[in-house]
Specification:
By secondary structure, the chain is α/β, with parallel strands linked by helices. The chain has 21 helices and 29 strands. The longest helix has 17 residues. The termini are far apart. The protein binds beta-D-glucopyranose.
Length: 753
């Protein structure tokens, strides 16, 4: 028999509300695991007072050539029929494994994808928390929240038996149609690098090898296995590579994954400019480079260019590598360099000293942090006449329309996919297993969450499938909320930025039926909004994760005052993008993609994309071209208002500072993300501004705070290709401060020489 407690009289209501508040307010928690020390022999490299590099060198001296080569390739991929090897089982149901050197106490490296949660929980019968998408996280502009996100990812990875993540996507959103935009952290190198860096730093602190990917210019999925990204050195250094370098400098990841595509003629995984000159020599990266899955294309050429590990097979870095060594084509020093890098990361990231100990993930903690992150990430885009937050005293009936809001919220696909507990909630019972590139919905019903927080309001759902009945419900309600979604995945790009299907039509129709219409978006990237002027509110919830519905309900009713700001521009239409369409593939490329990753490629299709916009990614492009946008980079509203005043700028040792005052001019406490931009002296040739810093300012109503943002000289420098280095030009730097890239009420100038 089921016990039914009417919502109003539910004796646990207060406790639930307190729990929700705890989820939203609790301080960061440390999750470092207390794994038992493994019984170990008294080998010299087990001396923890030695540096990771010293320990790696000691082990290396004991190893045979075969053992070294075994560290440099994968052993198959469990759930891919075409990638099987005898030791594939070592991968623990994940993405791959490296054998380690068990006789010397060096454990296998067991890897899985972990972009917004641990992959494969469905097929493996495990549990993983889905955090909001990485793009959502970036919208928080909060490195502390990124750290909490990373801690959950890392601890759940370890709990499930892995000791390496394949997360950490920091490719810039150069084209918003890229099907992996939700896995990355937006369009600005400083914001993306900072957020991914802090996420990965805290993820890696859980005694797993961290990874930053996909290096580099893997900015579209179309033809990704062979597309040649053409871009100047200066432009790539000041855009995508800068994001990588910032993330790597913060996280010091044990690994960097090179990408599938080519860059200026060379595959990334055998590209000496990317791997040797930049990553290894200029950035002094100490970890190892592993290929994306099937992204290795040669033996001698690749290892000489700086690739250390082939994944997930041994097509090039197995027997062929040994033959190359025996034939003198690859030196022992080169093998040692690569093997040492793998060993270094095993020591530096704690794999040797903290063996895997499987345990049940802390599900509640995961839910709690997922909710907190989403509450920091939901962007309020429009709030005409303060339609939000919803006021239960005035709103007695609400129509919830579309987007399967009665059962759940959508998630992002591909190798990032996290599987919902109970399976795909929109599939019929008995058919809820999750599949590659199915649209996967989590059991996070906004309808139920809203009913829970507004118990006195009549909230009714209509699927929106039949316009007349949805319109009728909207008409008879005080307010309508339409849920709209746009699904994205690895392995595809979006044809355009429109909401798919008939969702625009549905929104128009509901807005005509009820002037008090709010749209909630669940998208992985920017969308166009032809109906924007007809609705009163727009809320971007992204792919909202395991507790997205609760976070959303808290924002809609004002328990949480939104603070997030867009990490990418929402353009007016695809006509404003550098390329109106992603260049179509040549006709003969049908099998070239899979041939490339299977190591069977014979002729590389002639397909390239000329990234002529260079470093002008996102807002820099629109600004330099004087193109209006729908919502600018850095934009997001709050339930309160802020003003900016009293800017002073100063330059101390080439570290300019911007000091200014932010005031909460409204009636609610809130957090304002105050953004600092700079334009360079004209000798730079740049006609756009760069984000150079920001501050999250927490303010009570009426309160003012004076904050100082210190700008790193690197953010003001140009990349001098002739000198292969960064250069701070002498001259006047204009500093702009304000609430978004398009609105900067404060301006100042600082002279650097
Ligand atoms: C993706 C990577 C992923 C790898 C392993 C590739 O298809 O591009 O991001 O880490 O598969 O699953």
């Amino acid at each position: 028999m089921q016990m039914h407690i009417p919502a109003r009289k539910n004796p646990f209501r207060h406790k639930l509300a307190v729990l929700a508040a705890i989820c939203s307010l609790a301080a960061p928690i440390a999750f470092a695991q207390a794994a038992p020390k493994a019984p170990r022999k008294n080998w010299p490299w087990m001396n923890t007072s030695l540096s990771p590099m010293q320990r790696a060198n000691l082990v290396l001296k004991q190893m045979t050539l075969d053992e070294k080569i075994d560290l440099l390739h994968g052993n198959g991929m469990p759930h891919a029929a075409f990638w099987k090897m005898p030791l594939t089982y070592l991968a623990n149901g994940g993405a791959g494994a490296v054998v380690g050197v068990p006789r010397l106490g060096i454990p296998p490296i067991v890897m899985d994808d972990d972009a917004y949660g641990v992959r494969g929980s469905g097929i493996n019968g495990r549990y993983s928390t889905a955090m909001p998408s990485d793009l959502a996280l970036a919208s928080s502009w909060d490195p502390g929240i990124a750290c909490q996100y990373g801690e959950i990812l890392g601890s759940e990875l370890r709990d499930q038996g892995y000791n390496m993540t394949l997360g950490g996507g920091v490719n810039l959103d150069r084209d918003p149609r890229d099907g992996r935009t939700f896995e990355f952290a937006g369009e600005d190198p400083l914001l993306a690098g900072t957020m991914v860096g802090h996420m990965m730093k805290c993820e890696q602190a859980q005694h797993i090898i961290g990874d930053i990917k996909h290096y580099a210019i893997n900015d579209q999925e179309t033809g990704r296995n062979f597309v040649d990204a053409i871009i100047s050195k200066r432009a790539m250094q000041e855009s995508d590579l800068l994001a990588f370098h910032i993330a790597i400098s913060i996280a010091h990841p044990g690994a960097v994954m090179c990408s599938y595509n080519r860059v200026n003629g060379n595959f990334s995984c055998q590209n000496p400019y990317l791997l040797r000159d930049t990553l290894e020599n200029a950035w002094r990266f100490k970890g190892f480079v592993l290929s994306d899955w099937g992204g290795t294309h040669s033996t001698v050429r690749a290892i000489k260019a700086g690739l250390d590990m082939e994944q997930p097979m041994d097509i090039y870095f197995g027997p062929k590598l040994k033959q190359a060594v025996l034939a003198g084509k690859v030196s022992m020093a080169e093998i040692n360099n690569s093997a040492r890098r793998v060993l270094y990361s095993e020591f530096a990231d704690g794999l040797v000293d903290h063996p895997i100990q499987k345990m049940v993930p802390n599900v509640r903690k995961g839910f709690c942090v997922a909710q907190r992150v989403e509450q920091h990430s939901i962007v309020l885009l429009k709030n005409q006449d303060n339609i939000l937050p919803l006021d239960p005293a005035r709103i007695h009936t609400i129509a919830i329309i579309g987007g399967h809001a009665n059962v759940g919220m959508i998630s992002g696909g591909g190798s990032a996919q996290v599987d919902p507990p109970g399976g795909n909630v929109i599939a019929p019972p008995g058919h809820r297993a999750t599949y590659w590139q199915a649209h996967i919905w989590f059991p996070t019903s906004p309808l139920k969450a809203l009913r829970h927080v507004m118990p006195g309001t009549k909230i009714t759902y209509n699927s929106g499938d039949v316009l007349a009945s949805a319109d009728a419900l909207a008409k008879s309600s005080d307010l309508a909320i339409v849920f709209a979604h746009q699904w994205e995945s690895e392995g595809m790009d979006l044809p355009n930025l429109s909401l798919p299907g008939k969702q625009n039509q549905l929104i128009e129709s509901i807005a005509a039926a009820n002037p008090h219409t709010i749209v909630v978006l669940e998208t992985g990237t920017a969308v166009t909004m032809p109906w924007l002027n007809k609705v009163q509110g727009v809320v971007e919830a992204w792919y909202a994760g395991s507790s997205g519905h609760k976070a959303l309900a808290n924002v809609l009713i004002g328990r949480v005052n939104p603070s997030a700001k867009l990490a990418m521009t929402f353009p007016l239409s695809v006509n404003e993008l550098p390329r109106k369409e992603i260049p179509p593939l040549p006709p003969a490329t049908k099998n070239a993609g899979s041939d490339a990753i299977m190591g069977k490629i014979h002729a590389i299709p002639d397909y390239s994309v000329h990234y002529f916009e260079g470093a002008k990614v996102g807002y820099k492009w629109y600004e330099s071209q004087h193109k209006p946008v729908l919502f600018p980079f850095g934009f997001g509203l709050s339930y309160t208002t802020y003003s900016y005043s009293h800017l002073t700028v100063a330059a101390d040792n080439h570290h300019p500072t911007a000091t200014f005052t932010v005031t909460n001019t409204g009636h609610r406490a809130g957090t304002e993300i105050a953004e600092v931009y700079a334009s360079l002296p004209s000798a730079s040739g740049e006609n756009y501004r760069r984000l150079v810093g920001w501050s999250r300012v927490k303010l009570n109503p009426g309160q003012s705070k004076t904050v100082t943002v210190t700008v790193s000289p690197r953010m003001l420098s140009i990349y001098n290709t002739a000198k292969s280095g960064w250069q701070l030009l002498p001259g006047a730097y204009h500093i702009y401060v304000g609430p978004s890239s398009a609105t900067t009420p404060l301006e100042g100038t600082v002279h650097l020489n």
